[in-house]
Amino acid sequence: MKRFLSLILAFSLLSMTVSAWGKKGSSSRVKKINLVWYQWFDAETQKNELTPIITEFEKTHPNVHIELAAISSETYWDRLALDIASGVEGDIITLDTGAGMYGYYSQREGGAFLPLDKYIKGKVLEDGTSLEKDVYLINSVKIDGRIVGLPYIMFSAPMTAYSKSKLKAAGLTPADLSTWDSYYNAAKKLTVDTNKDGTPDVYGWGHPTFVETLSRWWHMHWLWTAGGGIFPKEQGPYTPDRLIFNSPENIKAVEFMKKMYHDTAPQGTKTVTDIHAMFANGSVATCQAAVWTIANFKSMMTPDQYENDLGFAPFPAYSADKKPVLVSWGNPVAISTNCKHPDEAFEFIAYLHSKYAQKLAMRRAAPTNKLVYADYAKIYPKQAAFIQSCQNFEMRSVPDIKQWNQFDHILQESISSALLGTRSVKDALDWGQNEMIKALKN
Amino acid sequence: MHPALYRGTILNKPSPLKSNRESTTILQFILPAVIVLSIFVFIPIFQTILMSFQQWSLSASSKSHPFAGFKNYIAVFGLSQFKTMGYATISYTVLCVFGKMILGLFVALLLNKKFVGRSVVRGLMLIPWAMPSVVVCNVFLIALDPNYGILSGMITKLPFVKGPFQVFNGTTSAFAAVTIIGIWKNFPFISLMLLAALGGIPQDYYDAASIDGAGRFRQFLYITWPQIKPIWNTLLTLQVLWTVKEFELIYLITKGGPDSATGVIGIDIYLNAFRFYKVGMACAEGVLLLVFCLIFSIIYFQNQNKEGAL
């Protein structure tokens, strides 16, 4: 009996030890929550902005690890579409309000991104930022009346970037860039063939002719400023009968761009990068630039050139009574409906709107946290002045439709054909209109 | 050979046991290849054919892909750029293959001669083929840039060229440029193969022909050509099959433009599948391309068999 009791006692002790060890073991080996963040930003942004933000966040959330999925900007949208279709997309997804956000959302029955309204309601960050009150564009990321993303950063485009020294040498002032007609005359004056070999050494204007996936930034403001666009004021309903792509206003706009391109710009198929590189190296005197290109100019120019020679003027008005219409958009971050840890994912995307994270993002974009604007001008004066100047004008976004990628391609093809002269402007825009009608019908 | 073995293999019918063992051995050898081919070739082809008959769009939220009959095929034939695409694909294939084969043959004949530094020249010849397409395309894009391109600068200086030389701005010139770049990039492969074939022709044939008074052209026609013809025919088939589905080179240079002048079927498949998310339609285009390649291969091999029989 004694032996039996001692055996039971030993067994109980052993079981207790094992279970206690097991509990201790399980708590010490808690598996970290891994959240994959899909984004396309360049290596410098990842190093100087995203990684420090993640490090700070992980300090206060030791059970969460944010994994940056480094996807190139060229392949990002294709990859995202394929991954959503296959159900393997990241937990946190960076989007673009001007790149057919609705298209990606509608890839999954019931929506590919989680509605965030219940998370946002009453949410105040430790630094006092209220997501409901202190974040710009919060209502621009609504689908079917529900907020599906938090606008992390925002952009405005374009301003006209110019070389102060070149303008001065040609006897011009920034006021000469204020209307389309005066801009044309100024660009003609700035186009110089110093060695008389028939090819200008400095072009008065630079414009990208190949902007597939980016047409919304580099073509649309010309059409809007002339009174045209794709749909009237880019507002729905987006039906074929409301398309105005071959409107007389658009024809006027593209005719003007063609004249500018032919008489004052570097010829051939040029990308945005080509034009901005030519501006930075001095072979283009003026071009349109977006807020994030300021950081690129800084890395391409000498410090003296960046500080003293780079100037910005507002995008030219069509005429005295037709003011510029600019482009605005944001990069919201959304949570995939496939995310297994939506609470933690929301904590992270909320942290992206903290003052600390927003100040880091100022380098290349406008912050969406209203509370950091006082510091913006101190930290990045050129960027802050750029954004402030843009805010004086009407800003639009391209229509958020499922067929946006097709529209983007059509827009690019038709304007490029018109500029390169393979089609007349009217033929190019008629072709574009017909293709857009087909895209909407299919 | 041992008489018993001789009887067993040739004269006598193989025993069922041995036959089974041989079948198992054969199966063991081909099974890995069959598995790999099934996973990476047959199943994807079957899946593509299946998807080409389904309503398959990445931008549609539904998980079901209902049977759509020939709707995707009709949509392909109804594309506004279908005629341009067909014309561009066929013209590019014909001109590019013709150019590659002729230039490849010419260079192979030249490099088959003995001269100082022949092996160095043979090595240098391979550079365009060995270079990645991205590099080749960027080199040409820079060299032909109307503003700072070295080639376009030289061409602009020619007396009959008016204004800056803008090769990628015109539909015909852009098409000609990508075709020439395609030829330049790939002709070394043809030369290499034909050089190997030329190296196998005994010198005695040419010596005998010279004694009989045959000139260089006759020597080529009656000795060289019959000897290299089998390799030539194989290369021709391979080149047609490879060129008709060209994508990367054209996409990197012109993206199919201007005005879809260089928009071959490979580019349209890419756009439909990955930019417009019309996967069903892209699959239908892929199947049409597959059918073309199959028909071409069958006709070619039938002709080969006929020639062999003659």
The main pleated sheet of chain A reads as:
7 strands, mixed
Helix percentage range of chain A: 40-55%
Give the chain pair forming the largest contact, with residue counts.
A-B, 37 and 32 residues
Strand proportion of chain B: under 5%
Shape of chain A: globular
Oligomer: heterodimer
Count of helices of chain B?
A: 14
CATH superfamily of the domain at 79-277 in chain B: MetI-like
Strand proportion of chain A: 5-15%
End-to-end distance of chain B = 34 Å
Mean pLDDT level of chain B: 87
* Helix count, DSSP H or I runs of 4 or more residues of chain A: 19
The coarse silhouette of chain B is flat
Question: How far apart lie the N and C ends of chain A?
Answer: 86 Å
Q: How many β-strand runs of chain B?
A: 0
What order do the SSEs of chain B take from the amino end to the carboxyl end, as H and E?
HHHHHHHHHHHHHH
Explain what the structure shows.
The complex is a heterodimer of chains A (442) and B (310). By secondary structure, chain A is α/β, with parallel strands linked by helices. Chain A is built from 19 helices and twelve strands. In chain A, strands 1, 2, 3, 6, 10, 11 and 12 form a seven-stranded mixed β-sheet that branches. Residues 22-28 of chain A have low confidence and may be disordered. By secondary structure, chain B is mostly helical. Chain B has a domain at 79-277: MetI-like (MetI-like fold, Orthogonal Bundle). Chain B has helices at 3-11, 16-52, 71-77, 82-111, 118-125, 127-130, 133-143, 150-156, 171-199, 203-211, 216-244, 248-253, 265-275, 279-309. The model of chain B is unreliable at 1-9 (pLDDT under 50). The chains are: A alpha/beta (442), B mainly alpha (310). The interface between A and B is medium-sized, with 37 and 32 residues.
